[in-house]
Protein 1
Amino acid sequence: MENKTGKYIKYAVGEIVLVVIGILIALQINNWNENRKAEIEERDILQKLQLNLRDDINVFQYQLNFKNNMIDSYKQCLDILSEETVATKEEFMNHFSSILQVGSVKLNMTTFNNLQTTGQIRLIKSNELADNIVSYYNTDYTLWQSALQDYTRNITAPYVLQFDYIPQLIINDSQGNQIEMTGQSKDFKKPEKTLNDYKNNYFIINTLRQKKYNLEALIPRYKELLNSALNLDKSIQEYLETK
């Protein structure tokens, strides 16, 4: 009886051990599956962030080129008005044509906002990378941009619209077709202002100087954001390649 009891105990212990081993294996497999699922979700999140960043990069590059051209145009205008450069009214208006334009940058925050709403930013295992992502999307870049927009819309536009005909502006649509944004002044009876009218107008001179100043202050901020976006995109790519 003692011999049989010992065998039963050994058998029961063996069964328990097997059950425990089975549970541990199942937990290990479940943990592996959960980790694998988290890695897939993390990769998907980071790749979506890269797409958003590359949208930002394209916008920054376009706006930097656009605003540098505006600065050059306003410099040409001021040279003409100060008579450092001899030019016709038509040549002046070609440079003056963007005076009512602003153009602004708005970060593509689609993925980041979703991460904040759902709390999924915790899936990014690199604390340093997660911190850099949060820092990029919380950068305050709107001060000079808002100043340019407010000055153009609230001060420049009302005056220019009543002072003279809006300069003819031709832009390209997404298919590369040219679109004329304003009509020819010859279609109307009221005469245009002369180049001398612009030369003797304090507001025109000052608004050109002010917009040029705003743009020159805004461009370094855009360059900083462009470099931040490029570096963050590179960091994400390097992190993904280690996974």
Protein 2
Amino acid sequence: LCPAQQHDADLIYRIKHEAYAAYAIQSRGSWDEDFQRRYTSENLPNTQLLLIDEKPVGWIAVRIDSHALDVLDIHILPSHQRQGIGTSVLRRVLQDASVLRKRIKLSVLKINPSRSLYERLGFCVTGQTESHWLMEHEG
């Protein structure tokens, strides 16, 4: 893990687009590039790049508030998915939450198969929107 810098904004956007755009388009019918660029840029202070052999393969953004760790996003390049990277990174978040005695919150598109990963790690569905499952882990 490596903290993201301002100069990483375009890389972070490109990783999100490659890993997530197809799900967003399937779920919502479109990809709002301006919104996605703004969203990823605004969350840079919460973002860490996931590196393998010093090469970025994904990123995670986690915001800590007084009650919880909020996993804003986690995206791994398709070529590196299903290799245990997401599991490893989320286990670190689980450890952090345990130390801080906070629960973890996240949301996942209903059509995104990563929900099964979250459930394997102990996350439970606590609610839903039209497009997302809302999930929590007690930490």
